Amino acid sequence: MGLMDGIAQGFAVALDPINILYVFIGVLIGTVIGVLPGLGPTATIALLLPLTYTIEPATAVILLAGIYYGSMYGGTITSVLLRLPGEAASVVTTFDGYQMAKQGRAGPALGIAAIGSFIGGILAVVGLTLLAPPLAALAVSFGPPEYVALTTLGILLVTYLGTGSVLKSLSMAALGLLLATVGQDPITGTTRFTFGQVALFDGLDFVAVAMGLFGVGEILHSLERTEKVQAVTKKITHIWPSRKDLHDSAGAIGRGSVLGFVIGVLPGGGGVVSSLASYALEKRRAKDPSRFGKGAIEGVAGPETANNASSTSAFIPLLTLGIPANVVLALIFGALLVQGITPGPQLISQNPEIFWGVIASMFIGNLMLLALNIPLVGVFVQILRVRAGILGAFALLVTMAGVFSINNDATDMWVVLAFGVLGWLMKKTGFEPGPLVLAFVLGPILERAFRQSMLISGGSLGIFVTRPISGGIFAVMALIIVVSILTARRRARVLHRHDTLDDDGNGNGLARAGRETDSDTLGDS
């Protein structure tokens, strides 16, 4: 199938009235949950997983994808008006967006964010359309060693690019790999870690684990919050940016689109990484970097464009290689697996309606986001008035009913509750559930590919470095680890030197300046 034929088939799928409805529902839900601080796309998609099994696979992915990139803009609203990021990728927007709101320019901040998100999303969809088919054709030649390398790279990057401690992330990834071994051995068929429970012979149910960690865990954590927020402005005017605003933001939007697309393709990349990188780039390029943090519109336009572009391009490794680039994509990956669809090199030939339909739906979804968010900003802000207890109770009820409906097995409900408590404890102790879930999803692929590689090579590990692609990927991983270690040591030396200056009581100004310089350096990196 040629490119144009694929695009035509994709729009035929996406323009089906049912799929148009689900695109709208997805971007609307995404915007709403982006507005609600703390919920985010991961928890929402985890809670809605049972719903996807009652609809067609293409429609299910269209819905979940809409929630994902829709939430990227929803988080912008509270970041600008409340200095409270509704979604993790919107943290950077609080730096300048909130300052613009305090200056009476909340409208232009939200408007340029919507425009940048639209442009970044559309350009990323174009890149996805052009890059995914040849990458899928290349991936057809991948063997078990290449999949070992890819899955290992994905787990490594998610661990190293996480927002918390690397050691904690590594421990969560290890726990995820351990949990993935529960059930029957993929080669010999013997049972492992089942403790004689028949319900565990097929392993832990992915949906139950995800809904527990992200759904119930997030609900329990959010119910502990008692703080109230107050918008910096009640009336939002002049949402469409001025000609000067558009001129000042044009370069940031263009650079954010390219940067976000590239970072989104990488395993472990995502909205947080891309928005941070975009902000650092704009600050470095600015003639007057001191404007940033005081209401620079480029500090809103670049990161918002980058995080929306990255959320779209992240579908490239999922659809072409079968490797989820981040936790949200891991949930979508699991949703397809349960429906009997395996994302990967064969998807474009075996299920072209899913591949091209999802791509075409992103064009429609980004248009809907632009139409929704500019005129309805005031409406979305009112959602914050809903009490967390009401939302939490309703979400918990839906979660338990949904997970039971999948297999009609009460064991899954206990799994949800157990992992819900675990997710809540992880939140309180600073552990990230993301590496755990991604390792849990990729674990079976990694184990199967590794053992197949060992059978092919007669037990020799040399197969991973003698094959060009797998060897190249492992070389990249080694480089990442070395650079990370050197960066950590350099950071420790700089901090030690500044602390020494403070302890001596001399050079306090130099110490503060050094810390600011070091912070800028870390941000730029």
Continuous helix count: 23
Give the termini separation: 41 Å
Strand order within the widest sheet? 1-2
**For the report, how would you describe the main beta sheet?**
2 strands, antiparallel
Structural class: mainly alpha
What helical percentage do the residues reach? over 70%
Number of strands: 2
What would the principal axes of the Cα set say about the shape? globular
Strand portion, in percent? under 5%
| Arithmetic mean pLDDT | 77
The helix-strand sequence is: HHHHHHHHEEHHHHHHHHHHHHHHH
Total domains: 2
- What is the radius of gyration computed over CA atoms, rounded to a whole number of angstroms? 23 Å
Please tell me about this protein's structure.
The longest helix has 37 residues, at 468-504. A hairpin with a 6-residue loop joins β1 (183-184) and β2 (191-192). The protein folds into 2 domains: 3-466, no CATH class; 467-525. By secondary structure, the chain is mainly α. It starts with a helix and ends with a helix. Residues 506-525 have low confidence and may be disordered. The protein has a two-stranded antiparallel ribbon. It is globular, with a radius of gyration of 23 Å. Helix content is 74%, strand content 1%. α6 packs antiparallel against α16 (352-373) and α7 runs antiparallel to α8 (166-180). 51% of the residues are buried. It contains 23 helices and 2 strands.
